[in-house]
Write a structure and sequence with these properties.
This protein has about 180 residues and is mostly helical. The protein has 8 helices and 2 strands. It has a two-stranded antiparallel sheet. Helix 2 packs antiparallel against helix 3, helix 2 packs across helix 4 and helix 3 runs antiparallel to helix 4.
């Protein structure tokens, strides 16, 4: 059931899932990690991601786990804010301007879809924590600085696996526009 909800959430937020997969593949290319199965929107548990070899160094694991999500946040947050603030707080309605209303609605949708797809696969997050804190790869300063981001990444990866991030965004949007 949860896998179906996960895949449904990825298909519904396909702009964010597709771009997340692109950022992942680009990061793998930069790090020299081989991509096993290309394609970003497959109908399986890796929908919105690329299948790749796990990183074997701490910094590489950190980049593959956090870099693509960071890029989705940096592109999704401005779009979300532009759409949300204009629709919710400025009160743009179709009667005001159909063109502006549609543009802001698209910005809101794309922004939310990007922000729904910021976390890595669970295996990437677990690999990051394993390399940094069990095998102690990387220097002590890097491990200390990565504690909070890697913890958030691990929790977020599990939340995204069970479509909790998608559900939270849906509830937020419904409450925002219903009240």
């Amino acid at each position: 059931m949860m896998t179906k909800l996960y895949i449904f959430s990825k298909i519904l937020t396909f702009p964010g899932a597709y771009l997340r997969g692109f950022w992942e593949q680009l990061t793998c290319k930069i790090l020299g990690l081989p991509v096993e199965i290309p394609g970003y929107l497959r109908i399986d548990e890796a929908c919105g991601h690329v299948e790749h070899a796990l990183a074997n160094k701490g910094f590489a694991a950190y980049l593959i786990a956090t870099g693509p999500g960071f890029m989705n946040v940096m592109t999704g947050l401005p779009l979300f804010l532009a759409g949300f603030l204009n629709l919710r707080y400025m009160g743009i309605r179709p009667a005001d301007s159909i063109a502006l209303f549609i543009i802001y609605l698209i910005m809101l949708y794309v922004g939310v879809s990007l922000l729904c797809n910021i976390f890595p696969l669970v295996e990437d997050a677990v690999n990051l924590n394993d390399l940094l804190y069990r095998q102690k790869k990387g220097n002590i300063i890097g491990r200390i600085l990565a504690v909070i981001p890697s913890f958030i990444t691990l929790i977020g990866a599990y939340a995204e696996k069970y479509a909790i991030t998608f559900i939270v965004w849906v509830v937020f949007m419904v409450l925002s526009f219903a009240l």
